[in-house]
Specification:
Strand content: 15-25%
Number of strands: 8
Distance between the termini: 11 Å
Helix content: 25-40%
Length: 186
């Protein structure tokens, strides 16, 4: 199974099991995702659960954060994590810090997902790896393990987070947003 297929299967299973799970981002619906990760999900779940957005990372990340605060379980997909820099205020100041700033009264169960790092043919604007940077931001959990991509995606959507350390895995109750990024080719 490819990484693309594993991600798609995990998204499909979680969307089928919980109506609060929604996917939004650029080209995730009609086009099936820039890397075809969301293939078939729009046809299966419709416009209200698989939402194409304009090219406004700050805007759709903010919508996803607000949706999470209102009780949904959004998966906010960036075409590449380089574009997440356009939404950095929403990712860090709104999503990551809200639980702590509200003394634990406002949970933000959101997943930010997308490819990260160098790849063939994407030039300088799309080749940075932001994993280490995001992993140093309080309130975010960052995942890179693509040997178990299907299981990890299901776990982080399903209200739990997986803290990954070399050779050790710890399950912790999900109270903070998850950043799921990767360096891979589909």
């Amino acid at each position: 199974m490819t990484v693309r297929d594993a991600l798609n299967s995990a998204l499909d299973e979680e969307m089928a099991s919980d109506e609060r799970v929604v996917l939004l981002g650029e080209e995730v619906a009609l086009y099936d995702g820039a890397y075809k990760v969301s293939r078939g999900l729009w046809k299966k779940y419709g416009d209200k659960r698989v939402i194409d957005t304009p090219i406004t990372e700050m805007g759709f990340a903010g919508i996803a954060v607000g949706a999470a605060m209102a009780g949904l379980r959004p998966i906010c997909e960036f075409m590449t994590f380089n574009f997440s820099m356009q939404a950095i205020d929403q990712v860090i100041n709104s999503a990551a810090k809200t639980f702590y700033m509200s003394a634990g009264t406002i949970n933000v169960p959101i997943v930010f997902r997308g490819p990260n790092g160098a790849a063939a043919g994407v030039a300088a604007q799309h080749s940075q790896c932001f994993g280490a940077w995001y992993s140093h931001c309080p309130g975010l959990k960052v995942f890179f393990n693509f040997h178990q991509v299907f299981s990890i995606m299901k776990v982080i959507i399903n209200h739990y987070i997986l803290k990954c350390f070399p050779m050790n895995f710890y399950f912790v109750r999900r109270r903070t947003p998850s950043v799921f990024m990767g360096m891979f080719r589909c």
